């Protein structure tokens, strides 16, 4: 029966999308076995194929921010989760990113945030990149912020952030500069906490 061959192939591809061995994920994340199992169940019920493409990710994410347009921020977030940049999130990508954001050290969280801001992944954050991310956050928050934010707010925000971070004034922020500034600056550290609330 030719259909048997098809079924066998389907099973094989399903196996390929299985998460890494539980033991390896236990070693690479700060979740317990129980937590990993319940995260996996949730992931599989939302994504039966075991993979999330960017469109699905945007749909899921936009449900949390009905008052704004979350699609651009979700795009940047998707890129930050998609560690191997293959255009789809598997359970492993998702759970490793989540572990850093929820249970990681300050250094790990800041590394993750830096990677989010570094849109082209060249190891530097430019003012333009920072502005893109800021605008996407303001868009996502929508008009629900009180008082209503001016359109110039993201640019002003970035100007202040960037001046603080670009310590040698060369027009780009390295991870070292980012790390040093964030750890010394209470305001920035508290605004980093918003990442945890946005995930």
TrEMBL record:
Gene Ontology molecular function, alphabetical: calcium ion binding; DNA-binding transcription repressor activity, RNA polymerase II-specific; potassium channel regulator activity; RNA polymerase II cis-regulatory region sequence-specific DNA binding
Q: Which gene encodes it?
A: Kcnip3
Record's InterPro entries?
Answer: EF-hand-dom_pair, EF_Hand_1_Ca_BS, EF_hand_dom, Recoverin
- The identity of this protein, by name, is CSEN protein
User: Which PROSITE patterns does the entry mention?
Assistant: EF_HAND_1 (PS00018), EF_HAND_2 (PS50222)
Q: Which family does it belong to?
A: Belongs to the recoverin family.
Q: Classify the source by domain of life.
A: Eukaryota
Instruction: Note one Pfam family from the annotation.
Output: EF-hand_5
GO terms under biological process: regulation of potassium ion transmembrane transport
User: Which UniProt keyword terms apply here?
Assistant: Calcium, Lipoprotein, Metal-binding, Myristate, Repeat
Q: Where is the EF-hand domain?
A: 69-104, 105-140, 153-188
Q: Which organism is it from?
A: Glareola pratincola (Collared pratincole)
State any GO CC term. nucleus
Q: Per its UniProt record, what SUPFAM superfamilies does this chain match?
A: EF-hand
């Amino acid at each position: 029966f030719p259909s048997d061959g098809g079924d066998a192939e389907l099973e094989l591809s399903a196996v390929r999308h299985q998460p890494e061995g539980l033991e390896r994920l236990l070693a690479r994340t700060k979740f317990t076995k129980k937590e990993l199992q319940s995260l996996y169940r949730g992931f599989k019920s939302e994504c039966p194929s075991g993979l999330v493409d960017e469109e699905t990710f945007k749909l899921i994410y936009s449900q949390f921010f009905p008052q704004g347009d979350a699609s651009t921020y979700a795009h940047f977030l998707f890129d930050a989760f998609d560690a191997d940049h293959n255009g789809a999130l598997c359970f492993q990508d998702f759970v490793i990113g989540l572990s850093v954001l929820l249970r990681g050290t300050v250094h790990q969280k800041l590394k993750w945030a830096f990677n989010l801001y570094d849109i082209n992944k060249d190891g530097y954050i430019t003012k333009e990149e920072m502005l893109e991310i800021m605008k996407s956050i303001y868009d996502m928050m929508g008009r629900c912020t009180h008082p209503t934010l001016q359109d110039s707010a993201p640019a002003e925000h970035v100007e202040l952030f960037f001046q603080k971070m670009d310590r040698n004034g060369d027009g780009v922020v390295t991870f070292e500069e980012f790390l040093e500034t964030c750890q010394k600056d209470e305001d920035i550290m508290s605004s980093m906490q918003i990442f945890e609330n946005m995930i």
